[in-house]
Amino acid sequence: MSKRILAVSALAILAAGTAQARDNIAIAGSSTVLPYATIVAEAFGENFDFPTPVVEGGGSGAGRKKLCEGVGENTIDIANSSSRIKQSDIDNCASNGVSEIMEVRIGYDGIVFASDVNGPEFAFTPADWYNAIAAKVVVDGKLVDNPNKTWADVNPELPAQDILAFVPGTKHGTREVFDVKVIEAGCEESGALEAFMAASMEESECMKLRTDGASVDIDGDYTETLSRLDANKNAIGVFGLSFYENNTDKLRVATMNGVVPSTESIASGEYPVSRPLYFYVKTAHLGVIPGLQEYIDFFVSDDMAGPDGPLADYGLVSDPELAATQAMVAAGTPMGPLN
Amino acid sequence: MSMPQTTGPQTGHRASKSLLEVDAGTRRRNRAEARFRSYGIAAIGVAVLALVLLVTSVLSNGLGAFRQTFVIMDITLAADTLDPSGTGDVDAMKRVSTIGYGKLLKTALIADLESRGIPTEGMSEKEIAGLLSKEAPAQLRNMVLADPSLIGQTIRFKTYATGRVDGYFKGRVSMESAERDSNVTPAQLELADRMRAKGLMSVGFNWGFLFGPDASELRPEAAGLGIAILGSAYMMILVLVLALPIGVAASIYLEEFAPQNRWTDLIEVNIANLAAVPSIVFGILGLALFINFMGLPQSAPVVGALVLTLMTLPTIIIATRASLKSVPPSIRSAALGVGASKMQTVFHHVLPLAMPGILTGTIIGLAQALGETAPLLLIGMVAFVRDFPSAPPEGFMDPAAALPVQVYNWTQRADPAFVERASGAIIVLLAFLLTMNIVAIVLRRRFERRW
User: Are residue A75 and residue A119 in the same domain, yes or no?
Assistant: First the structure.
């Protein structure tokens, strides 16, 4: 008897599952873009007659992979990404029938270095960071294993505080930017790159961080970095600008090359450690999923992504070329090949 | 206890001594016992301490989420801004977005402060409007669109105060922290104090936390558990409907009908093993089977329920089999003896007697499923969902959240107000778990029969 009920209910569930059309937009991807996407989704649901989009995190790479799973209601419509799409993603998409993707740049995000609010002030350069946490550094013209114990060893102008850095783990999009804009730049500035080249070693030697505990990879979110910082008042953490702006009462931000990170200094390009944020739209779903075109138009509108909009309030650095993006989105232009 | 209760074994040469004289061996054993007792007390102490720490930290962080600061203001719903066409047509009124309503709220709040004589010198309009939650324009817009006759009237409007002001009244934000905080200024907090003194702000129970939907990071004060509770309820209903019949049917067959052979042994071992499989494995299975292969929608309670059913089944089967086993064979023999068939025996006699045990096992299995997070993360239940799912059965297919996942979700957010929300959600989850476990205990106490 119970088995019959079971079979009937299972059948009913399956029938309902295949028969139902999705009427909400499905979004997944970068946890950096997630708060911005939820802010827009919320406002979109309030002001339009469409359902509020369902927004998931999961990371940039995972989001792009899901986007490329194929075309159909069972796949997501938009992938949020804090780094640019890769050729491998585009190839993966193409092999699954997703031939056209629209790339939308929503603005810029700054990466900031912050310490406990009651600690001393720091003024860094990329070279300081390289000398503090790289595996091999140049001392007296020779490449040696990193001997630096305190920040004062790295640069006499910095406080004599033990080196302890919480950097994002390698699965984070933030880490990529940190590697390129801070470590690679610092490698070159400090002369280590030249020394590596002279010793006919690979350029990738630059990216190796010391493993003696001075640099700690954080695989969780910024909230984890913050709580680790709370337990270790001596540490310096790497955060997104928007996270810092929501926790200015607990964190003291450091300058980079003498520039204080802010939406203004990032927009002007003075602050060096920043990156563009994107989302990628499956154009085959435009016109199929109700409200998709309206959502992306709304996302890049001045009311949302403009310099006075709620995204900027939350810490997004508005894109100076927003008008071009708006025109591109309105025309539904898919992205060309990566250059 | 210092007095020895017993003495050592009566070996030959000890027998000559008095029983009352405590020898070295007895003293050693008594000391060993005293040590063991103190270890036991210490172990319980550690456990109790851990529990007390957990509960106090959750309560002290989370109780605040149930109370909320509200702004109560008078607002004139001007027809020319809210209904520019003047036709009273709702579709035309929808053109006015929440941004338009936000501006209306700003001027209304400033006017209201002025009319009540609350000084706001030195504060920009943006600072004053910043006291209101960003949820307020949406609330007002929904109110007006639901009842267009409000336009032109002056109404008393109650809405959330911004999260930082709320935190100030709850002690999370102080004047010192506001100095350094880019999201609030001390002037705003002082204005909030004045508004509270004049009755424009009040702190009250926050029904929105229990029944409202989630909110974005710009408005932590509006975030609620409504969708998560509903999603969890949908899942529990489905788990019950699916797991109880399958589990009971499987147990009855295995216990009462199945022949004892290698196959049934194999099945038994597998069931015991399944109970120990980490829950994330079920999540991976669910993703591959239900979403990728069967094409069920992501973030839907139905997928969560199917995964949790798989996870709960072993618990239910084991509990059911134990309670079937505890029904004495004499009942079966008696039934068979008066001519009942095997099936009549089971369904008329054994199953009713085993029911309390089965129900207890089911409720405990459900409670376990209710608190499960890991498998749900993999099937997309961790999404930001703001629309309530519709009523069942269609609602089972709509995106929803779940209570434990909502906790996880909120702990990842940047705004410190979400820490309080997450702890509040833990309190709600614990309350549900406690209720279910109490029901299980009551059922067992009331209906259990000892043989």
Answer: no
Same-domain check for residues A136 and A264: yes
Q: Is residue A194 part of a domain?
A: yes
Q: Report ipTM (2 d.p.).
A: 0.83
**Distance (Å) from the C-alpha of residue A161 to the closest C-alpha of chain B?**
23
- Same domain for A228 and A130: yes
A235 and A186 within one domain: yes
Domain containing A202: what range? 110-274
Domain assignment present for residue A281? The answer is yes
Mean pLDDT, to the nearest integer, of B312-340?
Answer: 93
For B154-201, what is each residue's pLDDT tens digit? 889 999 999 999 999 988 888 888 888 888 888 899 999 999 998 889
Q: What's the domain count of chain A? A: 2
Among the residue ranges A199-213, A238-252, B188-202, B234-248, the one predicted with the least confidence is A199-213
User: Within 10 A of B54 (CB to CB), how many other CB atoms are there?
Assistant: 12
Instruction: Give me the pLDDT at residue B210, please.
Output: 93
B-chain residues within 8 Å CB-CB of A41?
Answer: 216, 384, 386
List of long-range contacts for A187-193, beta carbons under 8 Å, 24+ apart? A187/A130, A187/A134, A189/A125, A189/A126, A189/A127, A189/A130, A190/A127, A190/A130, A190/A131, A190/A137, A190/A138, A191/A138, A192/A130, A192/A134, A192/A136, A192/A137, A192/A138, A192/A143
The residue in chain A having the minimum alpha-carbon distance to the alpha carbon of residue B98 is A47
Residues A298 and A206 in one domain: no
Site from A27, A38, A303 to mutate, B interface, most B CB atoms within 10 angstroms = A38
Minimum distance, in Å, between the CA of residue A305 and any CA atom of chain B: 14
CB contact under 8 A, B411 and A223: yes
Split at pLDDT 50, 70, 90, the class of A9 is: low
Burial B190-201 (b: 16+ CB within 10 A, else e): bbbebbbeeebb
Query: What CATH class has B226-447?
Result: mainly alpha
**How does pLDDT run across A38-71, given as a tens digit for each residue?**
999 999 998 998 999 999 988 888 889 989 988 8
**Domain end: A238, A254, A274, which one?**
A274
- B292 → chain A, closest CA residue: A74
The three-point CA angle B92-B98-B101 to 5° equals 85
B1 band by pLDDT with thresholds 50, 70 and 90: very low
Same domain (yes/no): A58, A121: no
